[in-house]
Amino acid sequence: MKQPSKPRAKPPAAPKIGFVSLGCPKALVDSERILTQLRAEGYVTAPAYADADLVIVNTCGFIDAAVEESIGAIGEAMAENGKVIVTGCLGAKGDTVRLAHPGVLAVTGPHDTEGVLRAVHENLAKPHDPYTDLVPPQGIRLTPHHYAYLKISEGCNHRCSFCIIPSMRGDLVSRPVGDVLQEAEHLVEAGVKELLVISQDTSAYGVDIRYRTGFWNGRPVKTRLYELARALGELGAWVRLHYVYPYPSVDDLIPLMTDGKILPYLDIPFQHASARILKLMKRPASSERVLDRITAWRGACPEITLRSTFIVGFPGETEAEFEELLQFLRLAQLNRVGCFSYSPVEGAAANDLPGSVPEALKEERRARFMAVQAEISAARLAAKVGRRMTVLVDAVEGRTATARSAADAPEIDGVVLIRNAGDLKVGDFAEVIIEKAGEHDLSAKRVEAGV
Ligand code: SF4
Fold first, then answer.
1. Which of 38, 312, 316, 407 would bridge 355 by S-S if both were Cys, CB 3.0 to 4.6 A apart?
2. Per-residue pLDDT for 102 more than 90?
3. 270 C-alpha to center of ligand 1: Å?
4. Strands (E), 102-156
């Protein structure tokens, strides 16, 4: 028998946008493009200021009279509605718009459909309609549903001699902070429990756009790592920072860790410890007083986990320089470390450096490096036995769950094996007490929350 189909839930009301289009036919075409894109995304136009959730004014700045008309139109929209985005030629005339109307939400120049749409998304998010949107708001993800990578920028301003990423991906381009935060919000709404912030150089976020102020849910947020991390910390998920170079500004992140806003975890690719090798590598922030900084971070946040990667056998690396690296490891007592033996990448400047290290010696150094670190890692993990911690479950098999603590990033760090998983499911947080420690992983028993 044919079953009656379920009644379709009422879709959320579409957000309404008022639009004022001034100027020449070229400006008119810009307006058409913006309106077309808005309609395609599910926004509708409002016939009156009072009906609109937000107003866009496309301005003209050609002659004085046109400037006056545009300024007047913005003023009217501000008075009648109060949420105004300005675009068009007047927007390209320095601070004219902001001097006349400091309260406007955003100002873009002509032919900037993308900029206008970005400002609209930042200030008036489009509600997701599962019946008409083919792609969920958090996008399609290849990671398990409980964690997700959040890419905050593309490209890199550095020119490390062993790396060809800048030649492939260009200089740093930071994503608008409003877009990043909105994506993060959608991810958390979709069930993501852990956000892994990634880029080529996370500490440099916003440098390319001079830390411009963006908007998230109508609230101003600077395009800078501290502000981004603080805002991400409000979403209620774990926030883990990767590829953080030790610029002085990184010190500001530590209080966010001690306050529990973001995970006490820093992934800092140091690559080497010898000043000469770092110079040959052309590494960013290589002259910062790394050991002193590590001591200060640990003093302020004893829980902090420091992860890093290193390259051994870089061209010209002497035995003494390699020993310096081992000594650094012993002093820094990093929690997690990855080590690669140098291998030339086609097109990398380091290929032209003299003193290539024989393969067998590179491998020998790598083995010695890993042996030193294995001892450090084992000792640091052993110190965790008996401690209670919160972990996030990645997998459950029979009575055993594989989970991670704040100290463990997925795929690259260790795990916490829980022997009495009970009813735990993937993506659950659990309270455990550590019973045993190995070189990389921990074993634990689950305890009831609050006990
Ligand atoms: S290795 Fe250096 S050049 Fe390559 S992406 Fe990282 S910071 Fe940029």
1. 316
2. yes
3. 11
4. 106-107, 147-151, 153-154
